[in-house]
Design brief:
The chain is α/β, with parallel strands linked by helices. The chain is 52% helix and 11% strand. The protein contains 19 helices and 13 strands. Strands 5, 6, 7, 8, 9, 10, 11, 12 and 13 form a nine-stranded mixed β-sheet that branches. A hairpin with a 2-residue loop joins strand 2 and strand 3. Helix 1 (2-18) packs across helix 4, helix 2 (36-47) packs antiparallel against helix 5 and helix 3 runs antiparallel to helix 4. The radius of gyration is 27 Å and the shape is elongated.
Length: 535
């Protein structure tokens, strides 16, 4: 039993020290490495006086446990957001993760997951500390042999460095945790300085003092709809597994809109996030500032920054509304974005089933917007921010189009929901995930284009875009953060104003179409549709 416990302690510490922090590095070969940190810790503990050796073992084991927990957080963040966990700025996102669990698995599922995570964290710290103490006691008892073994391992590590030996593309002589700590030290310094940098950037607002009568003069009398399509990223258009179907939808939609008198221009925007964090992308697009973390978002929404949506309200020429099906709690940020009225998930009149995380199918959300605002007789010009959520992770199940006239209160979706796939079915393979993601994008595009065909008129201007790329399972770990953006209008003068942008004709941006950082759109849009020289 003693030998078995010792072997388990060695294995546990070895796994802890060489555990990768990125999912695509989690292969058996990744664990065939010599960790320099383990060798140095063994040498340090052997060199310590006996009276402080145990305390040193406890501290060393605890540090190893903390690094394991950090790597586990990294694994989760890379799986969804394709980036490591930020020790300064990301703690609030754990609350968002809990909200997601509650909305998809219920309160019981949320509490069970949180309890499991806490127990796992405690177990990791206890086990790594206990394993380090046990091995330290054993090394002290057999000091001479332990010194020789440590020297041998150190020599082997140096030899691997000299010979450049690799396993699974990684050096056999590993310094994973040392590199991780170095990266995190740099990250912490940058994150601590971020608030100061952001304040300096936010102080510059080219449209803060523009008179209301000189804002958006090129869109007066138009209904302008800013619509975000959840997770509609470049991969949907260019990935070989998805591109043919999405390309067909975009071509068919371009032709049908053209037949109805609409023209479109499309380009690319680079989102500040990938995989999630939609509200950060929305606020970047609307504010003209790069909102890449929650700290920046809080600073923005507590300021008086001019946004695209608030610009419309400032003019007094538009009624401004928000359609936000994913919002199920109080949303004070709506006031910052200048929205006169907000239709959240509780105020869309929907009595059908949810679809994974998405509470309201896109087609129903758009129909409610038509019924409550867009289709009202005698109304004035309207500006709307609309967030379509049916293409939100986990894409299980996915709704499908139904007769617009039969949407009713949403009960028609009950049968569609029952016939849909479960999350377990969808996530059994990456290929299945990509297929359902593609289906969700098709559904969202059909809903949006169908709405425009059915209800749009000569005064309708639609601006729609993706907020971010989907999770790495779909993008195959692509580092690109590009999303398509399109402006559709019936009046040719609207698109004439952006003729110099170099955008592609139609709903599908060309591969070589301009790629703008998402935060530049506000200024370029307000400039294009403001007073023009010589006019």
């Amino acid at each position: 039993m003693a030998i078995g416990t010792t072997v388990l302690a060695v294995a546990l510490l070895l796994v802890a020290l060489v555990l990768p922090d990125q999912p695509d590095h989690l292969t058996p070969k990744a664990f065939v490495r010599l960790p320099a940190e383990g060798i140095l810790l063994a040498a340090l503990l052997l060199a310590l006086p006996a009276r402080v050796r145990r305390a040193g073992a406890v501290a060393g084991g605890g540090l190893i446990g903390l690094l394991v927990l950090l790597k586990c957080l990294d694994l989760g963040f890379y799986s969804v957001l394709y980036r490591p966990f930020d020790l300064v700025l990301d703690w609030g996102l754990l609350g968002n993760a809990a909200d997601y669990l509650r909305e998809t698995s219920g309160r019981t599922g949320e509490l069970a997951t949180i309890a499991g995570a806490v127990l796992l964290a405690v177990a990791v710290l206890v086990l790594t500390t206990g394993a380090t103490v046990r091995l330290t006691t054993l090394m002290a008892r057999h000091r001479a042999r332990s010194v020789r073994g440590t020297l041998a391992l150190g020599t082997a590590w140096v030899t691997c460095v000299v010979l450049g030996l690799h396993s699974a593309g990684q050096p056999v002589a590993a310094t994973l945790d040392a590199d991780l700590l170095g990266d995190r030290a740099h990250q912490v310094r940058a994150s601590l300085a971020d608030a100061r940098i952001f304040r300096r950037q936010a102080a510059v607002d080219a449209f803060a003092h523009t008179p209301a009568d000189r804002l958006l003069t090129g869109l007066r009398g138009k209904d302008v709809l800013f619509t975000f399509v959840e997770s509609y990223g470049r991969s949907a258009i260019e990935d070989p597994a998805m591109a043919p179907r999405i390309d067909a939808v975009l071509k068919e939609s371009t032709a049908s809109l053209k037949a109805a008198g609409f023209q479109a221009r499309s380009g690319w925007l680079r989102s500040p996030v990938t995989g999630g964090g939609s509200w950060l992308a929305h606020s970047t697009f609307l504010s003209g500032l790069w909102i890449s973390n929650q700290q920046r978002f809080r600073s923005l929404t507590s300021s008086d920054r001019t946004t695209l949506t608030s610009s419309f309200r400032r003019t007094g020429a538009w009624r401004t509304v928000g359609v936000v099906p994913g919002v199920l709690v109080a949303w004070p940020e709506g006031r910052f974005f200048g929205l006169d009225h907000i239709y959240d998930g509780h105020h869309l009149g929907y009595h059908g089933p949810d679809f994974g995380w998405s509470q309201v199918p896109d087609q129903f959300a758009l129909e409610t917007f038509r019924r409550e605002e867009f289709g009202k007789a005698g109304r004035g010009p309207l500006m709307a921010e609309i967030i379509l959520t049916s293409s939100h992770y986990p894409w299980a199940p996915v709704p499908r189009m139904t007769d617009w006239a039969k949407l009713g209160d949403g009960s028609v979706f009950q049968q569609i929901r029952r016939e849909g796939k479960s999350q377990e079915e969808v996530w059994k393979s990456p290929e299945s995930v990509r297929a359902e993601y593609r289906a969700s994008i098709e559904y969202s595009l059909h809903s949006l284009v169908g709405f425009l065909q059915r209800y749009g008129d000569k005064n309708t201007v639609l601006v729609f875009l993706g907020d971010h790329q989907p999770v790495p399972t779909v993008t195959a770990n692509s580092p690109r953060k590009d999303v398509p953006v399109t402006i559709v209008a019936h009046d040719p003068k609207v698109l004439d104003r952006i003729s110099g942008w170099g955008w592609t004709e139609g709903l599908k941006p060309a591969p070589d179409a301009p790629i703008w950082p998402m935060d530049v759109f506000r200024d370029r849009f307000l400039t294009a549709y403001g007073p023009q020289p010589g006019r």
